[in-house]
Prior knowledge:
Layout: E1 8-10, E2 23-25, E3 32-33, H1 36-47, E4 52-53, E5 60-61, H2 64-73, E6 80-81, E7 88-89, H3 92-103, E8 108-109, E9 116-117, H4 120-126, H5 128-131, E10 136-137, E11 144-145, H6 148-159, E12 164-165, E13 172-173, H7 176-187, E14 192-193, E15 200-201, H8 204-211, E16 218-220, E17 226-233, E18 241-246
Antiparallel strand pairs: 1-2, 2-3, 4-5, 6-7, 8-9, 10-11, 12-13, 14-15, 16-17, 17-18
Amino acid sequence: METQVGSHLKQGEGEDGQDSSRTHKCSYCGKEFPFKSKLDRHLRTHTGECPYQCGECGKQFNQLANLKKHVETHKEKKPYSCGECSKQFRRLGHLRLHMRTHTGEKPYKCEHCNRGFSQSCALKAHLRTHTGEKPYMCETCCKRFSELSSLKKHKRIHTGEKPYSCDECGKQFSVLSNLKSHMLTHTGERPYRCEKCNKSFRQSSLLKVHMRTHTGGNLLMSDGPIYTWKVIECQQMPHSVGLVVKI
């Protein structure tokens, strides 16, 4: 886990954190660990980060060892079968969790914005967007993030890593969502359609801006004034929005 939060070195400094003469203290609860790797795993009990997901049932775990142990359960007899996709499960609870991928059920609700989540780990991570807590820090520039995945994406700015490559033209991207958006330029697909006028767009952000043409250009900001936006469409690309100006 790549994070700097919660770690206080005692009896010396060092990067590897493997010297038994030093201890690493959790700033949340004060518990001490001889190795930084153990502290990193422990921190997930506070942050709610669950980076390891089972490919069979979608259940998430905060430790790789727990995921490996869980995966073994799928090798046993699986008496519970999904009526939608025929996927089989060992436990009824796993089937019920999986069914949320078909039903869209999100029983874990945020008390601040009422946004729903299918798993409690996802809700716990989302809550940090309201509290402002950012436990994950970039070692290069000290910028902080609320989610580990965001930190990993950010670090590619420094490393220049672009792990996602387009099969059509070879162009590389640092973020998977950028590759998916780029692929639409090859397929011509416009998956985001306006329900008012049936106009379609390649990106959801362009659709959101376009929708203001139907609402009079007004955008209500929570606990703030109403801003008026003038939407100017590019004449060269009639299916995209060229400029949005706040009046």
